[in-house]
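Dear colleague,

Thank you for sharing your sequence with our group. We've completed the structure prediction you requested, and as agreed, I am returning the results in plain text so they can be pasted directly into your records. Please verify that the sequence below matches your submission; if there's any discrepancy, let me know and we will rerun it promptly.
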Amino acid sequence: MGSRKETKEIISFIGLLAKWANVDKVINAANALKKEDVSFLSFYIVGNGPDRGRLEQMVKEYDLNNITFTGFVPIDNAYEIMLNQKSVFVCRTCCTFLGIVSTHLIYIVA
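Please find the predicted structure tokens below.
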């Protein structure tokens, strides 16, 4: 039986790459984890949008090689990404509580 570090863990964001989506927080988290042994972690940023260029620039500046931008993916393929892999899915809520919008992590076990 393999150790956790032999198994690829995936953290995915699927959605519009816009400033309000806070995808930069995923990139900042990947950068913060760079000092740890996280070779078992991969980040997938699925989608397109007006903030994509800035986000890709952040990845270059941080010299991150475990983040993949897929661009636009049809919704059925996005569901496959979420369901066919053991992964963490990051999403932005569409509602607020007392003016606070939160980001949720959803752990999907396939």
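Summary note from our side: Residues 94-110 have pLDDT under 50 and may be disordered.

Kind regards,
the structure core
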